[in-house]
Amino acid sequence: MKRTYPFLKLAIILLFVLNIFLLIVIKKDRAEYQNLSQSYKINYDSLKQFKNFNNIWLLNFSLMCEFQSDRIDSNIVLFDENDNKITLKQLGVKKPKFIFKYSALNCNSCVDEQITLLKRASKKIGSENILIITDYNTPRELSQFVRLNQIDFRILNLRNIKLTTIDNNLPYYFIIDESYSLKQLFIPIKGNVLLTQQYLDKISEKYFHWNLN
After folding, report:
1. Does one domain contain both 82 and 40?
2. pTM listed for this prediction
3. Do 34 and 126 belong together in one domain?
4. Over the Cα atoms of the chain, what is R_g?
């Protein structure tokens, strides 16, 4: 037994060292696996977001193509904050007006995002050239929206009337002139501020360039 003791001691030491080595390898492999898993998750989430964006953009693009240049009834009746009636024709569109149409049924964050962008764009477009059309049930709701958002351009109410069949589903922008048709129709995508900003810049340059001087 005395002769085998040094060998037993050496074997125990080797086993201990081997265990330490294996623990280090396992820890390293686990860290690499976690990094790979995290990287895979990030890539998967990015791919999923891109796919969702692509699907939304294709849907919006098809709707924009479908309703582009559709005529609007110039005798359609709108209401201001004091519940006064006014037709679209009475607004006067000898010069183009930029319209933002949204519904009270649209998500609040979607509308808030567009209002913020529209306020910035109004410095180039001119507040007098912007009109918001919505569909609140009462003048009080309309006034409350104006007050909360500190809007300094005109906002009118359609109530139960619709300009297009997409009115209740999506907010959208367009230019209106004496042709009373939907020109430069654009449906923004929530969260894609850059795309909407590019559209607003193009509208400013094309239709309201005199405000840029």
Report:
1. no
2. 0.72
3. no
4. 31
